[in-house]
């Protein structure tokens, strides 16, 4: 009898363990996967003073303001990969930062290389490091983020506009190690945190390298899907109706019903013409950016002017 009780207790314990294990697996499977750019978003926004006021200031060919230099190129591209870049045992602004293996426990800072396929150079010219139709964008890999996790979420990386310059053109001093020198020659830097991403077609833009308030200031209502109106065409996609908070505007901008006879710019720098229903936020930002490049004389397609 005692053996039967022990056997029953063992079966019950095994059943509980099995159910618990299945529940844990189900819970893990139900956890939503973090998007690519949310993993690279900085934990905290900057506390210093901004060196520029608008996207016009980072447009290639814009007049430098004090110590701030505008981007050398504006490209439209698609994120196609992420690679290990370089890791340092101390901050890379230290007098002699020591390069360590990328996955080393000694690494105090890691810079990943986000691989961007260049679909079009909209303004300016790309520098050294542009090869095979691609550039590698230097982006800090936050602690707790892994390359495997980033690669698994590449399907959410999307496409967008990138204000960039060659890292080699921006170095303050020659890197001490050959490895760091080769790295500087291979990557581009996002200028003014100027990365604006459409994670899925027609979605609101996100600015993953800056904080939410700064993103709203730079994008204004350009980053939002255009609201529908009585004159809207039925082709406007349903996936444009849910803007993400990171691109939310602090200004209402112009009415979507404004016609081509009302070309005055809005307070955010956009044009009522860009608010037409069916225009994606990325298309509106592209148009705005190209007009700015027309003014600086760096636009690559004069038909956009």
UniProtKB/TrEMBL annotation:
<feature type="compositionally biased region" description="Low complexity">
    <location>
        <begin position="243"/>
        <end position="267"/>
    </location>
</feature>
<feature type="compositionally biased region" description="Low complexity">
    <location>
        <begin position="225"/>
        <end position="236"/>
    </location>
</feature>
<keyword id="KW-0732">Signal</keyword>
<feature type="signal peptide">
    <location>
        <begin position="1"/>
        <end position="23"/>
    </location>
</feature>
<feature type="region of interest" description="Disordered">
    <location>
        <begin position="219"/>
        <end position="305"/>
    </location>
</feature>
<feature type="compositionally biased region" description="Polar residues">
    <location>
        <begin position="293"/>
        <end position="305"/>
    </location>
</feature>
<protein>
    <recommendedName>
        <fullName>GerMN domain-containing protein</fullName>
    </recommendedName>
</protein>
